[in-house]
Design a protein that fits this description.
The chain is of the alpha+beta class. It is built from 6 helices and 5 strands, in the order αβαβαβαββαα. Forms part of the ribosomal stalk, playing a central role in the interaction of the ribosome with GTP-bound translation factors. It comes from Arenivirga flava.
Length: about 170
Amino acid sequence: MANKEASVAELTEKFQSSTAVLLTEYRGLTVAQLKTLRKSIAADATFAVVKNTLTKIAANNAGISSFDDELAGPSAIAFVHGDPVAVAKSLRDFAKANPLLVIKSGYFDGNPLSADEVNKLADLESREVLLAKLAGAFKASLFGAAYLFNAPLAQAVRTVDALREKQEAGN
C-alpha cells in the first residue's frame, strides 16, 4: 500500500512539473524498441511505462481528468520537461516507423489534446528553428534600416563631390 502511494506521489509530481504530457499505447513493442524511443526523446522528456489505475489517480491529483477514458491497455507517458514540439515530432516519427506505438492524447499548457492535436503539435517547427527565423528577420530589418540611413549620406557625399569637381573644372 505504501509503495502504491509513493508511486502515485511520484507520478503526481511528474504531471505537475511537466510542460506537456503525451499518452501512448505501446502494445507489442519490444524492450529494445522502447529503449530506442526513450533515447530519442531523452533530451526533452522521460518516457515511462505506467500502471493505468495509479496514473489516473495521479493525473486527477494534478488536476488532469482528460486521460480518464484513455487509460486502457499498456500505457506509457512522455513527461516533457523540454520542447514539447520536439517530443511530439519524435513520437510521431517513431510511430510511423513502428506502428505498434499509438499516440492516444496529450495535455499541454493547461489543455487536453486529442491524438490529432498532438500530431498538429508535431507539425510545428521547433523552438530553435522559430528563433533562428526571428533572428534572421531582425537581421534583415536592421540591414534594411542601416541601408536607409546610409543612402542619403552616400548621396550627399556624391553630390558634394560632383559640385567640387564642377567648381574645379570651372577654375
